[in-house]
Design goal:
alpha/beta; Arc Repressor Mutant, subunit A; D-Maltodextrin-Binding Protein, domain 2; 12 strands
Length: 297
């Protein structure tokens, strides 16, 4: 019978599962490595099962351990909820919130959302990760980030997925481009020139019209936009992300509508069903409010 189980032990279990090692978990939790090792060993004795397989490269959960980790996270979420309920003023919220977003969101709507959210909840430590949608989905599924902001919609029985907004893709050329005086451009015209495109869905559309010359595959938006501004290639971004883009505001990049096809782009948020804290829900509420304001620009 388990009679000495402690919240700290559950935190150790979840953090080891997230980081893949006892040493990394100890560093993140600001606890000594021997303390975590002793806490896990004690819990394994109390439960009568092996939670992790330890090796030189890290610690992997056993099949039984995976079930315990899942339940431990649920319990920690409930404890967090109880702690947050005790604070009648939202401004007293404390803790850490990790948000992973694709570039189109992190360079447009996210900055203003973060500023506004931080003013309301200064006690919450924010971590921002910029990645591709497929990596963000994995981070959320693994419990390594609290909220994922992705392109498209995603169905997973472990996740809550909600649509945020829809925008359209826009072609972008440099101010010295032969197309700079135009208001629109066709995809058939685009594929005859070097192209910068990071969206797999958009690449599939371009590929239907021919064999585009994809110039670079870099995730570095700054480098890509500099190349577009120099007139070396034609790029694609969403109408939403270009609203506050400095290259567009200075006239170095010219946005053009796509004349022969309307390319809709959806953005969504994802969360683990078992990992929805009050802080994360307040952040999503703030994000949705900022989206409404952003669309009015």
């Amino acid at each position: 019978m388990v009679n000495k189980l402690r919240i700290e032990q559950l935190m150790y279990v979840v953090e080891i599962a997230r980081t893949g090692s006892i040493s990394a978990a100890a560093e993140r939790l600001h606890v000594s490595q021997p303390s975590i090792s002793q806490g896990i060993s004690s819990l394994e004795v109390e439960l009568g099962i092996k939670l992790f397989i330890r090796s030189k490269v890290g610690a992997l959960p056993t099949e039984s351990g995976k079930s315990v980790i899942f339940k431990a996270q649920e319990i920690l979420n409930k404890v967090e909820e109880l702690q947050e309920i005790a604070n009648t003023e939202y401004s007293l919220l404390k803790g850490r919130l990790s948000i992973a977003a694709i570039a189109g969101i992190s360079t447009s709507i996210l900055p203003k959302t973060l500023v506004s959210f931080k003013k309301k909840y200064p006690g919450i430590e924010l971590e921002i990760i910029e990645e591709d949608s497929h990596i963000i989905r994995q981070l959320v599924n693994d419990g390594k980030t609290d909220i994922g902001l992705i392109g498209g919609e995603y169905n997973d029985s472990n996740l809550v997925c909600g649509k945020l907004f829809r925008t359209v893709a826009i072609a972008c050329v440099g101010k010295h481009s032969i197309f700079a005086k135009r208001e629109a451009i066709s995809i058939k015209e685009v594929i005859n020139h070097p192209v910068i495109c990071s969206s797999e869905a958009l690449k599939n559309i371009l590929n239907k019209h021919g064999n585009p010359n994809y110039l670079i595959k870099s995730k570095n938006l700054e480098a890509a936009k500099h190349i577009i501004a120099q007139g070396i290639a034609i790029g694609f971004y969403t109408e939403m992300s270009l609203k506050v883009d400095p290259y567009v505001q200075t006239g170095d990049i010219i946005p053009l509508e796509i004349s022969d096809e309307t390319i809709a782009v959806d953005y969504s948020f994802i969360q683990l069903k078992t990992h929805r804290s009050t802080a994360s829900q307040e952040f999503l509420k703030e994000l949705k409010e900022q989206i409404i304001l952003f669309q009015m620009i």
